[in-house]
Design goal:
This protein has six helices and eleven strands. With 245 residues, the protein is an alpha/beta fold. The strands form three sheets. It has a six-stranded parallel β-sheet with strand order 1-11-10-7-2-3, with helices on one face. It has a three-stranded antiparallel β-sheet with strand order 4-9-8. Strands 5-6 form a two-stranded antiparallel ribbon. The longest helix has 21 residues. The chain binds 6-phosphogluconic acid. 6-phosphogluconic acid binds next to helix 2.
């Protein structure tokens, strides 16, 4: 597996490093008139990255050929403070010049089971296929303290190998329903980027990087079939990696 680890000296520097890489990826594709399909995650770390993109790269990136999807969504209305789309729209999408048709949100306000089916169809209609699965150019993932990613929690490990594009998951603590991409779709992407900050994540980061495929952490099973896995870490989240580097 092709794996890259990038460590930045602080979360702000990490956010800028991430934003620079994403803007270069998009502008390079745009120069070749290539459509890019990108799936975003929610959470505070992705929010930081998207804020830097929205505040500083809105006018230096050509967004017209980019399509944004979501890795997962909480089953709440888009105006809810919990909404991953609502967060991204506020800190990022509302600040860039992108056609509305290029924004493919998960409708958190709808029946979760029906939305999982509908969204699977929307993804199929708007992305190319590879290995008989939807192919994303980039999937941006966060990492939970329990080793979850997307909304694939330790208790939902079967979602890693589901034959569906999207499934309904349940947060183990809040019991909140989520619609999430499944593991096989995530692993089919060209570029998978984990963005992780904070010393509280150092242990789970080092465990996963040291032991890909350990049963406790769903994120440990994110291993691209044909693409590249990149870990974007700040120095705190990477602080236990020095022992293994
Ligand atoms: C979500 C995310 C989830 C998140 C991680 C990390 O909907 O919450 O998709 O996978 O990215 O839990 O979140 P933090 O960066 O806030 O720790």
């Amino acid at each position: 597996m092709n794996k890259v680890i990038k460590i930045s000296p602080g979360q702000t520097e990490l956010a800028w490093d991430f934003a620079r890489e994403i803007s270069e990826l998009i502008n390079s594709a745009d120069s070749r008139k290539k459509t890019l399909n990108i799936a975003l995650s929610g959470g505070t770390t992705p929010k930081l990255m998207l804020s830097v993109l929205g505040d500083n790269f809105a006018d230096t990136v050509s967004w017209k050929n980019v399509h944004f999807f979501w890795v997962d969504e909480r089953c709440v209305p888009p105006g809810d403070s919990e909404s991953n789309f609502g967060m991204a729209n506020k800190v990022f999408l509302d600040k860039i010049n992108i056609p509305a048709k290029n924004i493919h949100r998960i409708r958190g306000e709808k029946n979760p089971e029906k939305e999982a089916v509908r969204y699977s169809g929307e993804i199929s209609r708007h992305t190319p296929q590879l290995n008989n699965l939807p192919f994303f150019d980039l999937i941006v993932l966060g990492l939970g303290l329990d080793g979850h990613t997307a909304s694939i929690f330790p208790g939902n490990i079967e979602l890693l190998n589901s034959d569906k594009i999207c499934e309904v998951a349940v947060h183990p603590v809040s019991q909140q329903k989520r619609v999430t991409l499944t593991g096989r779709v995530i692993n089919n992407a060209e570029n998978i980027i984990f963005i992780v900050t904070g010393v509280n994540k150092a242990e789970v980061v080092s465990e996963i990087i040291k032991n890909p495929g350990i049963v406790d952490y769903p994120a440990a099973f994110i291993e691209p079939t044909n693409g590249v896995l990149k870990w974007y870490l700040d120095d705190d989240a990477a602080s236990l990696l020095n022992q293994w580097a």
